[in-house]
C-alpha cells in the first residue's frame, strides 16, 4: 500500500496545478474547473512526466491534506510546515503548523474567499491537526492491533477532504486527526525511564463549537466527542508498551442552550422517544467499540443543569438494557462535592466509587496479552473543564498499572519532575480540546497542573469565561460554518447560482441554528436534495428521500417548521433537525412550503396521516400506576400521577410494564406521560411540556391535530384558573386553554366524591365529568370541533385509587400536500363585532384609561387581521360599522371548510402597552351570525358575536405550493447585524493576536516557497523531543485571532 508523500513540489500553471512526489515521482494534475462549482477532476500522471515547468510558480510542501470547496473554486490544502508533536512506540506524530491554500483558478479570490480562508487557516493552523507518515494515526494502539485495516475510521477527521478524489490523490494524502499529541520523558523513583504519550482524537461526526453544537443527533453522534489514549512505553524496547483509553462526549439526548448572551440555561429538545433512539444508537456504538461503558456525569444535580442530569438518568433507566453489555451511570455533582476548596476530598470520593471498575477495565498490552475491556465515558455540560480534571485523575490512577507492566517494578512512584510533567501534559491536553470547542483554554487547569486550586487560577478562569462569551456571540458562527464545510456537512459555493431543474424555491426565511442565531437563507427543492444556502454562501443539502417528520412550531412568536432527516452512513451528512423560521405574518407561507416539500419528498410516513385514533387518559393517586387489560383499542394513552413530595424523576408517572402492552413512551414529565402504539409514533410530532408547580401540561400533534393534556391538584374547584395561569406552552402569546384543537384538563380535588355518569356542559364551552375519589376531567375544543366518544360505553377503573377520565376518538388530518383540484383563494370578512360582559385580567387596573381591539389570525393567513382600537368605556365594546378582513393562502375547499380562525380581544393601555383580555375561535364552515365564549385560563370572561362571511375564488392548483425555481437567480442578501458585528470583532481579534491582515492566499503561498524540512532536521527535532519535551511553540495556539 502506498504511503503518503513527505516532499511535494507544486507547480501552479495557467490552467492547472501539478503536484509531484519528489521522492518517487508520482504525480497528479488538477485542471482548473471550466465552470463555477464544477468540483475537482484530478488525474494521475506516470512518474517523470511532470518535470517540465512552464514558467509557473513552484512551491513546496511537507504533506498533502486534501481539497476543500470555496466560493469561487476548489482549493488544495497542503502543509507548508510541520513539526514533531509526539511519538508513539510505532511512529512519530507530526502536527500541522502552516498551511498553504492553492486555488484551482486563475481568477482573483473574492472577499468572501479571503474571509473564509482566514477562519479556515485559524482552524488548520491551531496546532490540533496531526498525522503520521507511516501508520493511520486515527487508530488507537488496541484498535490497530486487533482490527488493523478493517478498523473503522471514526477519528479520521479529514476524510471528507479526500472524498471523491481518485486513488492517486488519496494515496498521496495524509490522514489527519484533530485533537492533541504530547510526549514526555518520565522517570520512576527507582530510576527507570519511560515515555508517556497522550493522544486525543476528536470525532469528525457532529463537529462544531460550544453552544452551537450540543447533545446528540438522530444517529447517536454527540457533540465534542473525543477519545484520549495514554501510552506508556520503553524507548529501548518499543514493543513493551501499554495503552489506556478514556472518552468524553456531550450528554447523548436532545438538548440545546439557545437563549441568553452569556450562559444560557440548558433546555431539553424534542421528545423522549426521539431521544431514546439517539441514546441507544450512541451506547450501542460505544459497546461495540469499547465493551462495557461506565458513564460518569459531572453535571450539577440542582439548578438549571439538573434537567440534564435527570434526563440522562431517566434514559439510562429506560434504555441501558437495550445495549449489550448495558452501560452504567455514576452521577457525581462535581461542583457540590468540591466546593469550599474540597477538591482533593471530592476527587478521592469519586475515585473510591470507581475503584472496582479501575481494577476490572485493565489496559492494553500486546506483549503481556492483556486488553482493555471497557471504557470510562466522562461528561459535564461542555465536556471540557470538569471533564478534564476527572479524566486526568483517572489516567493518573491507571498510570501506576501501566508503569508496572512496562518497567517491571513494584516501585511505580514518579520523581517530582516527572509528576509535574504528567500534570503538564494532561493540562495541555485539556487546553487544546477546550480551544477547539470553546475558543479558550480549559478552566480549572491550575488544579490539573499543580494539584491545587489557586487565586490566580480562579482569576484566569474569569478571563477565559469572558472570552467564551465573546466567542459565543461574535466568532463561533463563522467557525461553525467552516467546520461544517471541512467535515462535509456544508459546502461553500459562489453565489448567485442559476438552476434550471428546480421544483420550488423560497426566500424571506431564516435558518435557526442550535445556538438560537437566525441566518437569512434561500431554500430550493432540487432533483434529489433540499438545498439551504445562507447569507455567507454556505450551502447545506438534505436528501429528498431522507425526510422523516416535520413539526409546525408556533411558540417563538414567528411560525417555524422543524424538519427531521436521516441520512445513510455513506451519504453526505446533514445537520439535522433543520429549523426554519418564517416572517411573523408568514403562517400561510409556511403552509405552502410544507405542502411543496412533502409532495416532492413523498416521505413514507405521509400515507399514515388521516386515520382515527382512540385516546384515553388515566389518573391515579397511588405511587405507581398499573395498566388495565382493556387497552386493546387505545392508540394514545395519557397517564397522570400527582405526588405531594418533590419528584426527582421524569419517569414517575410512567406505568409499569407498558412495553408488555405494546406501548412506546412518547414523552414524560414529572407528573404526566404519554404513550402510543408503534403504528401511531410516526404521526406524532411537536411534543412540548410546561409546569408551574400547580399544574403540569404536555401537548403533542397527532396526525395534524393539536392535543393538550393537563393534570393538576386543587384545594377546591374554583382554583383551576389560578392553577393554569403561567403554563407557557404552544402558540406564543396565546392562553393554554384557547389554542389546541382538543384540550383535556384532569385533576384531583382531595375529599371530593361526586361522580357524574356523563359529561355535562359548563357554559364556557367546556364539558366536565367527575369520578369517584375526587378526580375530574374538563374537555374543551376549538370552534366546536366534534367529539366522537361513545358516552354509553363505560370504562372501568382498575382500582379505587385509579380512574379512567375519558376515552374517545380523534379524527386525524391528512398530511400536507399540494391539492390537484378544487383549489380556491379565500377572503374572510367579519362584520358587526360586539362584545358582552367582558371582564379584564386581574393584572390590569380598571381605573386606567383602556382601549381595545380584536385580532384574527390563522395558520393559513397571509397576514393577521385586526380592527381599529376603540375606547372601552364599558364591558361591551362594539365595532358596528367596521369589517375585519383576512386573506388566506390558496388551498383546497375542504381545507378551508376545516380552517380555524384564532381570535384575541386585546386591551391597550398608555405606557403599559397591550395585554390580551381573552381568546376565542371560529371555523370557516360556521358562516353567518355567530356568538361564542371569550376564554381566559379556561374561564369564560365574556362573549363576542358578529357575522362571518367568506368569498371563494377558484385558482390554478399550482398556486397552492411554492413557485418553481426554474432559472431562478439567488438574490444578494446582506449580512445580519450579528454577522456585521462578528466581522468587526473578528478584525479586532486579528489585530489583538498580532496576525497580518494581508491576503491569506498570498500569505500561505509565500511562506510555502521555502524547502520542506529535511529528514535530518526531523530527526534532530525528534531527539530534542525525547530529551526535553516539545517546544512551547509546538503547543496549539490560541484561536483568538481567527
TrEMBL record:
Name the residues that span the membrane: none
What are the SAC domain coordinates in residue numbering? Answer: 120-439
Please list the GO terms describing molecular function. phosphatidylinositol-4-phosphate phosphatase activity
Query: Matching InterPro entries, A to Z?
Result: SAC_dom
Its GO CC terms are: endoplasmic reticulum
Q: Which Pfam families has this protein been placed in?
A: Syja_N
Q: Which GO terms describe its biological process?
A: phosphatidylinositol dephosphorylation
Q: This chain belongs to which protein, by name? A: SAC domain-containing protein
Q: Which organism is it from?
A: Rhodosorus marinus
Amino acid at each position: 500500500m502506498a504511503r503518503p508523500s513527505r516532499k511535494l513540489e507544486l507547480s501552479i500553471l495557467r490552467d492547472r496545478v501539478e503536484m509531484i512526489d519528489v521522492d518517487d515521482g508520482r504525480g497528479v494534475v488538477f485542471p482548473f474547473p471550466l465552470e463555477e462549482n464544477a468540483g475537482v477532476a484530478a488525474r494521475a500522471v506516470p512518474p517523470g512526466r511532470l518535470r517540465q515547468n512552464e514558467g509557473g510558480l513552484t512551491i513546496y510542501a511537507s504533506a498533502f491534506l486534501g481539497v476543500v470547496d470555496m466560493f469561487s473554486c476548489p482549493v488544495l490544502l497542503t502543509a507548508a510546515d510541520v513539526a514533531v508533536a509526539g511519538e508513539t512506540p510505532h511512529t512519530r506524530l507530526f502536527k500541522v503548523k502552516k498551511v498553504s491554500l492553492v486555488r484551482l483558478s486563475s481568477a482573483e479570490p473574492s472577499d468572501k474567499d479571503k474571509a473564509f480562508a482566514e477562519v479556515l487557516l485559524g482552524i488548520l493552523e491551531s496546532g490540533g491537526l496531526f498525522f503520521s507518515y507511516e501508520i493511520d494515526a486515527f487508530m488507537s494502539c488496541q484498535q490497530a492491533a486487533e482490527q488493523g485495516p478493517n478498523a473503522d475510521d471514526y477519528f479520521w477527521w479529514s476524510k471528507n477532504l479526500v472524498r471523491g478524489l481518485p486513488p492517486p490523490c488519496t494515496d498521496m494524502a495524509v490522514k489527519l486527526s484533530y485533537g492533541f499529541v504530547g510526549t514526555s520523558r518520565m522517570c520512576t523513583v527507582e530510576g527507570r525511564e519511560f515515555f508517556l504519550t497522550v493522544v486525543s482524537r476528536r470525532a469528525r461526526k457532529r463537529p462544531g463549537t460550544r453552544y452551537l453544537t450540543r447533545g446528540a443527533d438522530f444517529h447517536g453522534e454527540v457533540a465534542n466527542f473525543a477519545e484520549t489514549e495514554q501510552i506508556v512505553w520503553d524507548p529501548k524496547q518499543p514493543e513493551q508498551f501499554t495503552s489506556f483509553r478514556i472518552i468524553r462526549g456531550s450528554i447523548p439526548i436532545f438538548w440545546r442552550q439557545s437563549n441568553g448572551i452569556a450562559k444560557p440555561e440548558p433546555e431539553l429538545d424534542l421528545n423522549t422517544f426521539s431521544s431514546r433512539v439517539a441514546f441507544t444508537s450512541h451506547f450501542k456504538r460505544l459497546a461495540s467499540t469499547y465493551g462495557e461503558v461506565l458513564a460518569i456525569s459531572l453535571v450539577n444535580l440542582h439548578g438549571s443543569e439538573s434537567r440534564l442530569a435527570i434526563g440522562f438518568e431517566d434514559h439510562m433507566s429506560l434504555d441501558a438494557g437495550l445495549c449489550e453489555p448495558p452501560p452504567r451511570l455514576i452521577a457525581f455533582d462535581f461542583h457540590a462535592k468540591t466546593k469550599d476548596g474540597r477538591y482533593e476530598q471530592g476527587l478521592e470520593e469519586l475515585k473510591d466509587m470507581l475503584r472496582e471498575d479501575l481494577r476490572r477495565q485493565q489496559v492494553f498490552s500486546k506483549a503481556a496479552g492483556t486488553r482493555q475491556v471497557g471504557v470510562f465515558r466522562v461528561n459535564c455540560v461542555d465536556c471540557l473543564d470538569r471533564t478534564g480534571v476527572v479524566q486526568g485523575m483517572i489516567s493518573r490512577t491507571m498510570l501506576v498499572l501501566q508503569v508496572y507492566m512496562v518497567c517491571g517494578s513494584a516501585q511505580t512512584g514518579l520523581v517530582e519532575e516527572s509528576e509535574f510533567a504528567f500534570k503538564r501534559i494532561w493540562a495541555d491536553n485539556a487546553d487544546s480540546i477546550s480551544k477547539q470547542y470553546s475558543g479558550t483554554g480549559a478552566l480549572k487547569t491550575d488544579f490539573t497542573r499543580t494539584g491545587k486550586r489557586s487565586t490566580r487560577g480562579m482569576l484566569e478562569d474569569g478571563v477565559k469565561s469572558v472570552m467564551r462569551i465573546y466567542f459565543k456571540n461574535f466568532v463561533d458562527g463563522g467557525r461553525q460554518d467552516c467546520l461544517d464545510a471541512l467535515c462535509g456537512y456544508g459546502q461553500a459555493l459562489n453565489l448567485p447560482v442559476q438552476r434550471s431543474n428546480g421544483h420550488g424555491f423560497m426566500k424571506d426565511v431564516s435558518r435557526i441554528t442550535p445556538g438560537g442565531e437566525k441566518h437569512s437563507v434561500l431554500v430550493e427543492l432540487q432533483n434529489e436534495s433540499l438545498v439551504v444556502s445562507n447569507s455567507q454562501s454556505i450551502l447545506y443539502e438534505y436528501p429528498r428521500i431522507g425526510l422523516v417528520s416535520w413539526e409546525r412550531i408556533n411558540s417563538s412568536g414567528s411560525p417555524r417548521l422543524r424538519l427531521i432527516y436521516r441520512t445513510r452512513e455513506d451519504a453526505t451528512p446533514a445537520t439535522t433537525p433543520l429549523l426554519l423560521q418564517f416572517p411573523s405574518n408568514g403562517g400561510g407561507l409556511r403552509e405552502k412550503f410544507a405542502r411543496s416539500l412533502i409532495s416532492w419528498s413523498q416521505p413514507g410516513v405521509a400515507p399514515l396521516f388521516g386515520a382515527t385514533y382512540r385516546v384515553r387518559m388515566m389518573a391515579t393517586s397511588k405511587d405507581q400506576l398499573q395498566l388495565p387489560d382493556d387497552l386493546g383499542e387505545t392508540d394514545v394513552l395519557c397517564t397522570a400521577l400527582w405526588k405531594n413530595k418533590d419528584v426527582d424523576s421524569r419517569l414517575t408517572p410512567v406505568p409499569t410494564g407498558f412495553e408488555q402492552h405494546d406501548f412506546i413512551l412518547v414523552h414524560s414529565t414529572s407528573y404526566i406521560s404519554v404513550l402510543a402504539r408503534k403504528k401511531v409514533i410516526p404521526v406524532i410530532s411537536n411534543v412540548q411540556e410546561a409546569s408551574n408547580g400547580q399544574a403540569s401540561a404536555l401537548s403533542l400533534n397527532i396526525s395534524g391535530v393539536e392535543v393538550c393534556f393537563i393534570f393538576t391538584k386543587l384545594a377546591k374547584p374554583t382554583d383551576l384558573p389560578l392553577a393554569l395561569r403561567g403554563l407557557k406552552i404552544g402558540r406564543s402569546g396565546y392562553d393554554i386553554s384557547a389554542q389546541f384543537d382538543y384540550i383535556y384538563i384532569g385533576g384531583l380535588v382531595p375529599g371530593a366524591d361526586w361522580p357524574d355518569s356523563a359529561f355535562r356542559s359548563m357554559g364556557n364551552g367546556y364539558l366536565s365529568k367527575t369520578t369517584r375519589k375526587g378526580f375530574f376531567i374538563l374537555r374543551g375544543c376549538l370552534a366546536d370541533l366534534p367529539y366522537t366518544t361513545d358516552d354509553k360505553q363505560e370504562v372501568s377503573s382498575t382500582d379505587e385509587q385509579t380512574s379512567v377520565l375519558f376515552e374517545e376518538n380523534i379524527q386525524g388530518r391528512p398530511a400536507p400536500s399540494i391539492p390537484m383540484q378544487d383549489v380556491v383563494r379565500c377572503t374572510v370578512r367579519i362584520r358587526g363585532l360586539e362584545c358582552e360582559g367582558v371582564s379584564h385580567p386581574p393584572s390590569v387596573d380598571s381605573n386606567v384609561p383602556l382601549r381595545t381591539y380584536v385580532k384574527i389570525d390563522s395558520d393559513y393567513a397571509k397576514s393577521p387581521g385586526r380592527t381599529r382600537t376603540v375606547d372601552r368605556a364599558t364591558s361591551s365594546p362594539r365595532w358596528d360599522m367596521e369589517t375585519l378582513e383576512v386573506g388566506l393562502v390558496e388551498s383546497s375547499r375542504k381545507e378551508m371548510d376545516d380552517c380555524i380562525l384564532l381570535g384575541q380581544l386585546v386591551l391597550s393601555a398608555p405606557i403599559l402597552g397591550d395585554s390580551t383580555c381573552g381568546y376565542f375561535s371560529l371555523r370557516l364552515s360556521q358562516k353567518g351570525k355567530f356568538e361564542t365564549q371569550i376564554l381566559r385560563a379556561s374561564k369564560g370572561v365574556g362573549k363576542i358575536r358578529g357575522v362571518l362571511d367568506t368569498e371563494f375564488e377558484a385558482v390554478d392548483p399550482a398556486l397552492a405550493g411554492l413557485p418553481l425555481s426554474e432559472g431562478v437567480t439567488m438574490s444578494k442578501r446582506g449580512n445580519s447585524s450579528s454577522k456585521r458585528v462578528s466581522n468587526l470583532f473578528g478584525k479586532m481579534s486579528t489585530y489583538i493576536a498580532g496576525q497580518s491582515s494581508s491576503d491569506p492566499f498570498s500569505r500561505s503561498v509565500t511562506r510555502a516557497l521555502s524547502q520542506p524540512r529535511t529528514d535530518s532536521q526531523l530527526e534532530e527535532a525528534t531527539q530534542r523531543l525525547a530529551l526535553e519535551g516539545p517546544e512551547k511553540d509546538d503547543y496549539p495556539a490560541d484561536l483568538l485571532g481567527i
